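Researcher: Checking consistency across runs. Here is GntR family transcriptional regulator again:
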Amino acid sequence: MSAQWDDNQPIYWQLRERTVAAILDGALEEGQPLPSVRQVAVDFQINPLTVSKAYQSLVDDQLVEKKRGVGMFVCPGARARLLASERERYLTEEWPRQADKIRQLGLDVEELIRAATPSGEEST
C-alpha cells in the first residue's frame, strides 16, 4: 500500500478503505490476520490511534473481529458482504452519474468496450 494520503479525507478513513480494497481484491482473506496496529503505524508513519480508529470502524461493520491477545482477523463472509454492498453503492450512486456522462457524450456500448479492452485482445 502506498503511503500517499488525500488531504480531503481523514487518514483513518483512507486506511479503512485501503483495507476494504485488500479484502475485496483477496489480498486479505477471510480468517487472515490484519497487520498489527503498531506495524501499520510504523509502516505509514501515522499515529497508532489513527490505525485503531480505522480498525474499529471495520469491527463496527462486522468485517473484522478482535481476538483478545491475538489480533484482528478478517471475518468469515466479509468479502461477500463487501461485494454486495459495494455493488449496490456503485449501481445507485456512481453508475447513474457515469451513465449520464455516457449519454451526454453520445458514446455507444461498442466504443466503451473497445476503450476498455487492451489492444490485441478480443472482447466477448
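Researcher: Does this match what you'd expect to see?
Model: One thing to look at in this run: The longest strand covers residues 64-67.
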